[in-house]
Amino acid sequence: MVNKQRQSFTKPLGWWSIILVTAMAIVTGAVSLYSLSRFHLASKLQTPTVPSNSPIMTAVAALGRLEPQGEVIRLSAPDSQGGVRVAQLLVKKGDWVRQGQVVAILDSYYPRLAALEKAQKQVSVAQASLNQVKAGAKAGDISAQKATIARLEAEMRGESAAQQATIARLEAELRNAESENQRYQQLYKNGAISASDLDTKRLRVETVRQQLNEAEASFNRTVETIQKQLKEAIAKLKSIAEVRPTDVQAVQTSVESAKASVKQAQADLNLSSVRSPLNGQVLKINTWPGEIISSMGIAELGRTQQMYIVAEVYETDIKKVRLGQSATITSDAFSGTLRGTVTDIGLRVGKQNIFNNNIQADTDNKVIDVKIRIDSQADNQQVNALTDLQVQVLIDI
């Protein structure tokens, strides 16, 4: 009985001991943790700040592309909007061309060449007419006209002499007839002749007088006719021999008009030949003989004697870039590194067009184009056949 009561008292006492020990351990841990945190806080407040040793930026990195000096020129025809075809292509890829050199001939060349030759012949014809007008009539024409005048003068003299002789003869006959008529009138009064004899003499006078009047009228008509012909012949001679300013001006206008047609034909012909605007190299052929010129043009040219890098610098880095800064260019397409100098900084912010191989890279960056000239001739020769090559650029700052 006593043992059972002891057991009933000892069990509760054991549990309370465990609870008490656990509570004391928790309190002790909390106090220790608080003290430790206070110690660390005090230590942190008392420890002096150590300056950061972060690296200093010495270069601006950017992606870029190679291009010839002055960019790539896309050569096209002046009037390629009308479906113009290339007739002849006079260059091939890689050829060096001079400024003004004919690169291609269009299909409109030969018709326009024929039009030019025709216009040039018209100038020759008009010029010959002008020279003829300035020189006056031919010597043969003048001589022939003078001969006509001399013939008319001789004809007038001959006709005048003949008809005047006829008039003189008729005048003499008229005087004789009148004298006979007067004598017969006296004889008739004296009764020596009959009336019929008197009438015969009177009729003779009237007949001769009428013949005289007709001869004089014929003489006057002949003189007037020949004088009129002579006057016209003399006027024609003057017209032939005279060089009138109005005639010269009229023909001169024809010459100037023909020359203007030649200039127009030459201008049209020039549009049928495509010439290089620069001294450079043919980078690519886009249109071949027989093909219609498209929006890509005939060929692409570039001044590859001097190469440039167009680096796309982030807008946040552009303030660090200055003209004259040196740059290092690298690429897997050539060995070693290239050295260049910043020569131009763009004035417009645009979208990034050159990207690396990182598919997670941001493709919506804002960049500014910076042009870098390749310095050495050896470096230029190393990359002058690599237009549009993507490169990595470090601009020293």
From TrEMBL:
Segments passing through the bilayer: 13-36
Domain of life: Bacteria
Coiled coil: 160-268
Pfam families: HH_MFP_RND
Keywords: Coiled coil, Membrane, Transmembrane, Transmembrane helix
GO cellular component labels: cell envelope
InterPro entries: ABC_heterocyst_DevB, MdtA-like_HH, UPF0194_transport
Location within or outside the cell: Cell envelope
Domain Multidrug resistance protein MdtA-like alpha-helical hairpin: 162-219
Protein name: ABC transporter permease
Organism of provenance: Nostoc minutum NIES-26
